[in-house]
């Protein structure tokens, strides 16, 4: 029994370095399977699952050993959910003695809840190529709606500002405002503004040139 204890304890530095490498969300547990009723003989970062020394194993038989992917004494990447509904991603490797008898298990439990939330955010934030294409098509279909909205903005802006004795500098300031708001990025906006202001399209362009020259 002392030999088994020393062999299992030899994995403690690996457990500590693994936990240190992957941070506080990574728990490492060493089981002594010669004492299955109280198999946990070492833990680090045990806040992840709450494993305590002296507890028994949980997933070894039902999840690990019965998995079709359990080969060569290990199973990597299986998951389970804690009582407080956090997803844990785990790996378990068996430990054998010199006679090839299974005496222990080396388990890594990683709390991936934060990563899951990040993945959900990234999936929402980043569109796939197909989704981008779909969005482009929808935007093309909505051009008429966008033009209608801009038309309403132009009419409202001018309606709020125009008066019978409107002076040249007032018209220039009104066009400056619309230029700053991106109104003239829309096709046909110059013609619409010119019509509503009662001036020519050429005059609107000259005002825009004047505005540009003054700002440069």
UniProtKB/TrEMBL annotation:
Name of the protein in question: PAS domain-containing protein
One Pfam family linked to the record: PAS_6
Start and end residues of each YheO-like domain: 8-120
PANTHER family: TRANSCRIPTIONAL REGULATOR DAUR
Domain (Transcriptional regulator DauR-like HTH) ranges: 150-209
UniProt xrefs under InterPro entries: DauR-like, DauR-like_HTH, YheO
């Amino acid at each position: 029994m002392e030999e088994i204890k020393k062999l299992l304890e030899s994995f403690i530095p690996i457990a500590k370095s693994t936990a240190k490498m992957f941070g506080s969300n990574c728990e490492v547990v060493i089981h002594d399977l010669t004492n299955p009723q109280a198999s946990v003989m070492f833990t680090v970062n045990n806040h992840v699952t709450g494993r305590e020394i002296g507890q028994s194993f949980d997933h070894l038989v039902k999840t690990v050993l019965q998995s079709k992917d359990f080969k060569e004494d290990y199973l990597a990447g299986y998951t389970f959910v804690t009582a407080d509904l956090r997803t844990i991603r785990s790996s378990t490797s068996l430990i054998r003695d010199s006679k090839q008898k299974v005496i222990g298990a080396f388990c890594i439990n990683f709390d991936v809840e934060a990563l899951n939330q990040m993945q959900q955010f990234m999936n929402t934030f980043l569109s796939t190529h197909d989704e981008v294409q779909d969005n482009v098509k929808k935007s093309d279909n909505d051009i008429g709606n966008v033009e209608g909205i801009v038309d309403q903005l132009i009419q409202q802006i001018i309606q709020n500002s125009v008066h019978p004795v409107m002076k040249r500098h007032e018209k220039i300031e009104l066009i400056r405002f619309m230029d700053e708001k991106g109104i003239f990025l829309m096709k046909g906006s110059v013609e619409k503004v010119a019509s509503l202001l009662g001036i020519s399209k050429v005059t609107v362009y000259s005002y825009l040139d004047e505005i540009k020259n003054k700002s440069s």
